Amino acid sequence: MVVSLDADYPAALRALEDAPPVLSVRGVPTILAAPMIAIVGARNASAAGRTMAARLALDLAAAGYVIVSGLARGIDSAAHQASLDLGTAGVFAGGLARPYPAENVPLIEEMAQKGAVLSEMPLNWEPRARDFPRRNRLVSGMALGVVVVEAAERSGSLITARLAAEQGREVFAVPGSPLDPRAGGSNRLIKQGAALVTEAADVIDVLAPLLERPPADDVEAPAPGMPPSDPPETIRARVVELLGPVPTHPDDLVHLSGASPSDVQIILLELDLAGRLERHAGGLVSLT
Fold first, then answer.
1. Residues 120 and 256 occupy one common structural domain
2. How many Cβ atoms sit within 10 Å of the Cβ of residue 230?
3. What is the signed CA dihedral for 91, 97, 99, 105, rounded to 10 degrees?
4. Do 51 and 126 lie in a common domain?
5. Do the domain assignments include residue 268?
6. Which pTM value belongs to this model?
7. Does the residue 177 lie in any domain?
8. Do 91 and 119 contact (CB within 8 A), yes or no?
9. Contact by Cβ (8 Å): 151, 41
């Protein structure tokens, strides 16, 4: 267990308002104190996408960055595997006793020996669909920047990229063919201002100044406790009922529903992942 006051707790994550007070860790916890870069992308990644993710992960790890991702098949697995001997960390959506997907158990076991795997959830927590956006916020929150390699228009990787931007992280994307739907989301990120990446140097050049002023870790840490609980069904129903085709600010949802800001954000993430939420300028949201 690593608590937020420990030296091994990721400094970038500690600076976030909703940082988990406790992380369960298998592996080498000291690896979590190193500067991190997240690499995420499509589960059904192309051969070219996997090769690019592996090349970036290897070169960035050789430059001193720990590669963090979500242990999913495809791009995540390629990034973890390539950086296994130099430094990689994987974030579970469920508890550490519930590895997912099953096909990655051998990789997870290797990472527990050479790197680290971690979770904010109880040990035997079975991952559910709503836990993956929560996991994504940790992946982006632990990193100085997030690199997206292949992501469709409705991809969980785009949620990670949006969370990264909201957390003040750098967002990078590898361009892909306009004819490949797996590249639709990553190409759109570049249009929206994400830094275009064709080699590790593109990432290193942007992040180098950040290493001279690492994320503040003198923020008062929350008291240790259980991971954040799911919003009650009554709150979830109330928030969804308040949403409609007219764009609404999340602050108004908090005020009108009586829900906490964190509950509202979790509900919006769940709707986003389900493809039911549309985001507008100024942080407004509506149902699709």
1. no
2. 15
3. 110
4. yes
5. yes
6. 0.75
7. yes
8. yes
9. yes
Q: Using the structure block, give the residue that is written with the tokens 């051998």.
A: 106
C-alpha–C-alpha distance, residues 137 and 16, integer Å: 10
* Domain of residue 72, CATH code: 3.40.50.450
Instruction: Quickly count: other Cβ atoms within 10 Å of residue 214's Cβ.
Output: 12
The pLDDT tens digits for 69-99 are 999 999 999 999 999 999 999 999 999 999 9
17: number of Cβ within 10 Å: 9
Return the CATH number at 280.
1.10.10.10
Residues 43 and 166 in one domain: yes
Contact (CB, 8 A) for 3 and 24: no
Q: What is the mean pLDDT of residues 157-174?
A: 92
Judge if 249 and 192 occupy the same domain.
Answer: no
169-206 pLDDT per residue, tens: 999 999 999 999 999 999 999 999 999 999 999 999 99
Which amino acid, one-letter code, is at 117? Answer: V
Residue type, 47: A
pLDDT for 223-240, tens place per residue?
Answer: 444 455 678 888 889 899
Rounded distance, CA 243 to CA 6, Å? 40
CA–CA separation, 132 vs 130, rounded Å? 6
What's the CA dihedral at 8, 120, 40, 12 to 10 degrees? Answer: -40
Q: Which token pair is 150?
A: 């292949």
- Residue 135: the pLDDT is 92
